[in-house]
Backbone:
């Protein structure tokens, strides 16, 4: 996550990113640098989520900027900010799927909360099953363990099927990031290859209010998909129960 960046560099990057952060910092005691740094990236996170929710920022640009921000945040600071060590014992690790709990996130006074935060946990060999999203954007940080991470672009929709193009296929370790939106890497699938494994998820829904729903999830059968000559996959839409049966446990 933090590739050599110091806490001061994280702070200065956030400071240069938005005037609100400078205002917040002017109210902080200089004797509390760690708290100041957390307030800085928490404020930047809140602003980015408000901007994408308010259509001031395209979802793919939100993905780029929020990944850039969290890549600079030390993993130890994030773990502390979301109370990971306190929440971890309460996250069940089912035999055939992932579990999730709501995660706290530093409050930024004067800014509305336009996002949700969760921690997902699973045993080794369990999965966040393959699924796509509509009308939402989310960013995911690996907190512990290791995943086989796969993403797919949604190329087209057909009755009963999604036409997908593979976009990411890699091992994802603690501190690594990924994100999804309707515009980029929409379908994802995470299998815990070393566990227990956990992710922190930052989620913004209802990006297009005129669609009539806040968000939707669509599960797909990747392994059973038709492999086409152009590299795309014609994947069958499946319900949640079938997705768990096929992909929840490896």
Residues:
């Amino acid at each position: 996550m933090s590739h050599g960046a110091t806490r001061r560099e994280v702070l200065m990057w956030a400071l240069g990113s938005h005037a609100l952060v400078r205002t917040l910092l002017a109210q902080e005691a200089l004797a509390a640098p760690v708290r100041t740094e957390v307030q800085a990236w928490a404020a930047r996170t809140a602003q980015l989520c408000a901007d994408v929710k308010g259509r001031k920022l395209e979802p793919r640009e939100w993905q780029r900027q929020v990944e850039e921000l969290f890549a600079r945040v030390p993993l130890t600071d994030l773990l502390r900010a979301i109370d990971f060590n306190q929440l971890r014992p309460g996250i069940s690790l089912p035999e055939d799927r992932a579990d999730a709990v709501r995660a706290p996130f530093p409050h930024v006074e004067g800014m509305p909360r336009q996002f949700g935060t969760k921690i997902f946990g699973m045993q080794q060999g369990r999965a966040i099953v393959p699924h796509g999203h509509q009308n939402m954007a989310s960013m995911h940080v690996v907190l512990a363990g290791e995943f086989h991470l796969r993403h797919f672009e949604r190329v087209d929709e057909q009755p009963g099927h999604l036409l997908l193009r593979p976009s990411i296929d890699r091992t994802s370790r603690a501190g690594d990031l990924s994100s999804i939106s309707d515009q980029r890497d929409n379908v994802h699938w995470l299998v815990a290859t070393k566990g227990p494994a956990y992710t922190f998820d930052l989620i913004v829904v209802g990006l297009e209010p005129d669609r009539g729903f806040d968000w939707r999830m669509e599960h797909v059968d990747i392994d059973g998909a038709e492999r086409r000559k152009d590299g795309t996959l014609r994947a069958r839409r499946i319900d949640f129960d079938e997705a768990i049966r096929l992909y929840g446990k490896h």
Remarks:
- The beta strands are 99-102, 116-122, 127-134, 136-158, 161-173, 177-180, 187-205, 216-227, 233-238.
- Residues 10-34 have pLDDT under 50 and may be disordered.
- The two ends are 27 Å apart (CA to CA).
